[in-house]
Specification:
flavoprotein, 8 helices, MTOX, 26% strand, globular, FAD, alpha+beta, 19 strands, eight-stranded mixed β-sheet
Length: 384
């Protein structure tokens, strides 16, 4: 390649969280010489791709353009399961609960109408019969039930995607910090903290909360997010996953609860609170404070006391992770400044995991100069 040494690869993927792992899988299976670089170990708890389970739904209230991406992601999850033999997506169904004209249930209904999604609507009484763990429902609340929704398994998905990428010839460097990505002739030079430099025609930047460090021009802020599990005061079938499937629930004041019942063979419910811009604090990704304290769950516990009673005042387990968000809450996916050497995918804004495999495919299309099958113009990095 003009102006520099012989390349180490066609493309280097920086960051192997959910999005980067998916991109590496897609690039390698297409025959590209690809290297994936991860700062920590695979499936770590330092960034955004952790937590044992994540909600999957295609009724995407965040943007109408995300519905086709979620649908494509679901198909790719099944493909990755077939390739690897791993169980990665559990179609338990998903519920979006709240006022029918609200952000959560109302947004799901709008997405369902626009894209002709298979959903059904339960009124408050029907919801309570179906899911008795939900208490304190407002008179007009409804549940938008998506039978195709459910749970994805983040750590298993990352491990499966990277394993499939390796099987297709990708090389993987873990515990390797990338300090800079520079232009080098008509390609890029990826510098590591250990002094190694990887040369490639293109770089894919998927380092999650650290994207702003490698590409400072993007308007990203990093948010510290506690993840909490609760053990019921007493075992009861109402807390089992088949009676309390994965949900988002809008309550008075605009807060949104999310979570699901106990997984088979487990005793804990995973329950949390959406940020909404008022509960979590902006942090430096290098020093985000990984410790957890009562302040991390007090507001959530106050809501659970009446909304999902019987799960205790304090979590049985808690982690503090981080994620990057954008000013408009949408992702940044594309070529900043139309640079032919760099593709970025970041700014998950706490709703990106369900789209991971579809985003990996979009990234691979961009690297190969193809028009992505799923249009994502609203995620253009140059929109700000």
């Amino acid at each position: 390649m003009t102006g520099r040494r012989e390349a180490d690869a066609d493309v280097v993927v920086v960051g192997l969280g959910a999005w980067g792992a998916a991109a590496l899988w897609q690039l390698a299976r297409r025959g590209l010489n690809a290297i994936g670089v991860e700062r920590y170990g695979l499936a770590n708890t330092s960034g955004s791709s952790y937590g044992e389970s994540r909600m999957f739904r295609t009724a995407c209230l965040e943007h109408p353009g995300l519905v086709p991406l979620a649908q494509r992601s679901r198909a790719l999850w099944r493909q990755l399961e077939t390739e690897t033999g791993a169980h990665l997506l559990d179609p338990t169904g998903a519920m979006l609960i709240g006022p029918p004209d609200g952000r959560i249930a109302g947004g799901a209904l709008r997405a369902a109408r626009e894209h002709d999604l298979d959903v059904r609507v339960l009124d408050r009484d029907a919801l309570h019969r179906r899911c008795p763990a939900h208490q304190g429902l407002a008179a007009g609340d409804v549940a938008v039930v998506e039978p195709q929704g459910g749970l994805t398994l983040p750590e298993r998905t990352i491990e499966a995607a990277v394993g499939a990428a390796r099987a297709s010839g990708a090389r993987v460097l873990t515990d390797t910090l990338v300090t800079a990505v520079e232009h080098a002739g008509d390609g890029v030079a990826v510098h590591t903290a250990a002094g190694r430099v990887l040369h490639a025609a293109q770089a894919v930047l998927t380092p999650g909360p650290w994207l702003g460090r490698l590409l400072p021009g993007l308007p990203l802020e990093v948010v510290r997010m506690p993840t909490t599990w609760f053990t019921p005061d007493a075992p009861h079938e109402r807390f089992a996953l088949n009676r309390l499937p994965v949900f988002m629930r809008e309550i008075d004041g605009g807060d949104v609860l999310w979570g699901h019942g106990t997984l088979p063979g487990r005793t804990e419910l995973k329950l949390g609170l959406e940020d909404g811009g008022k509960h979590f604090r902006v942090v430096d990704p290098e020093t985000p404070d990984r410790s957890v304290a009562p302040a991390d769950w007090e507001v959530l516990a106050d809501h659970l006391r009446w909304a999902v009673p019987g799960v205790g005042r304090a979590p049985s387990r808690a982690l503090a992770g981080i994620y990057a968000r954008t000013p408009d809450g949408q992702f940044v996916i594309g070529r900043p400044g139309r640079d032919p050497r760099v593709v970025v995918a970041g700014g998950c804004s706490s709703h990106g995991f369900k789209h991971s495999l579809g985003i990996g495919e979009v990234v691979a299309d961009l690297v190969q100069g193809k028009e992505p099958a799923v249009p994502l113009g609203f995620t253009d990095p140059d929109r700000f």
